[in-house]
Specification:
Largest sheet: 5 strands, mixed
Helix content: 40-55%
Strand content: 15-25%
Mean pLDDT: 88
Radius of gyration: 17 Å
Number of domains: 1
Strand order of the largest sheet: 3-2-1-4-5
Order of helices and strands: EEEHEHEHHHH
CATH architecture: 2-Layer Sandwich
Length: 182
């Protein structure tokens, strides 16, 4: 009797967009809670050319999507401070190529505000970065704080999406594996 190929587990890719450093984290839906598959950064190295940095971000995100095949990309919403509107415009470029990479792979993009992510993870929408890092460490049972901050933020965004899915949250609460007859 031939073994049935196991279906690809549900995964979510969390992304903290940035022009210089884009953090990402891939979580797998697992019984007993989310499981970390991979986390890292994509660097926009070419400081002289915005176009080249965007191409690097696009290629890096496209490669992560191709390798891990997430069922969703969770992305931080664009935030603009009235004192720095140019920052929001530049971040919009990074978000745009990330959304394009997801669209080309036919992966839906879901956006979450920073306060929404913080509230889901810590219960406080105004939590500080170190509180979010500790919450991510605890939720994923990591031996140390996730670093750099871009990776911690991406994992926080992925965790927010994970816990906003009722069926995934219910699976996370289940501690024992129930064998299914073939």
């Amino acid at each position: 009797m031939a073994a049935r190929p196991s279906p690809t587990p549900a995964r979510v890719l969390g992304i903290d967009p940035g022009l210089n450093t884009t953090g990402y984290g891939v979580l797998e839906v697992a019984q007993g809670g989310p499981r970390l598959c991979e986390a890292g950064i994509v660097r926009g190295r070419d400081r002289k050319s915005l176009t080249a940095r965007l191409a690097e971000i696009f290629a890096g995100v496209r490669d992560v999507i191709a390798q891990y095949k997430p069922c969703a990309v969770a992305l931080e919403q664009l935030y603009s401070h009235y004192a720095r509107p140019r920052t929001a415009i530049l971040m919009g470029h990074a978000r745009g190529v990330i959304c394009l990479a997801a669209a080309q792979a036919e992966v839906p993009v879901i956006s979450y505000s920073a306060t929404q992510v913080k509230k889901v993870l810590t219960g406080n929408g105004r939590a500080k970065k170190d509180q979010v890092q500790r919450a991510v460490q605890q939720e994923l049972r990591l031996g140390r704080l996730p670093e750099p901050a871009d990776v911690a933020d991406a994992l926080a965004i992925a965790l927010c999406h994970y816990y906003r899915q009722p069926e995934w949250a219910a699976l996370a609460r289940r501690k024992t594996i129930v064998a299914r007859p073939d």
